[in-house]
Amino acid sequence: MNDGRDESAEERLDRKFEDLLQELRVMQTGAQLTAGFLLTLPFQQKFQELDDFQVVLYLGLVLLAALTTALVMGPVAIHRHLSGEHVKERVVESAHRLVYGVIACISLLVTGMVLLIWDVVADRTWAAIASGSIAVVLLVLLVLLPRRLDDGAL
Asked: Record's Pfam families (predicted)?
């Protein structure tokens, strides 16, 4: 695919890999901050007042944060394992796929955190409205808008 750049195939792979690494750095920071926030919750006094739904949601979010962290580390592990093997195209393709998983997990994590916080602070109805609204915004920004841009519609 020619994107108008004057670069060799190897240079293009290097650029794409550097772009992926930069994206992963940003996502890693977000995932780590989110996981850290979640890990502090059990030590808060209000945590003891959570109902069964909220506790299960919280535990699910902790697992999702751990999965997100694992997915962020995936491309690094792949690169470490295959470094020097002259298979950068496979490394870039694998990392590219994993980034989609990270985006999906972070989206679910953000939506779930909104659900939990609103459920604790307000009520379940407002929690559903708030988390549903965030889910729609994330869907538009992370799925629909990129597809529109890819189609050249915008």
From this structure: DUF6328
Q: Helix 88-121 crosses helix 9-40 at what angle (to 10 degrees)?
A: 30
Q: Where are the domains of the chain?
A: 9-150
Per-residue pLDDT tens for 79-103?
777 777 777 788 788 888 999 999 9
Q: What is the DSSP letter of 14?
A: H
On whether the CB atoms of residues 53 and 123 are closer than 8 A, the answer is no
For residue 153, CA distances in Å to 59, 138, 145, 147 come to: 41, 19, 10, 9
Instruction: Give the up-direction half-sphere exposure of residue 98: CA atoms within 13 A in the CB hemisphere.
Output: 26
For tokens 């729609």, the residue is 136
Model's pTM, two decimal places? 0.81
Query: Per-residue pLDDT tens for 50-86?
Result: 999 999 999 999 999 999 999 988 888 887 777 777 7
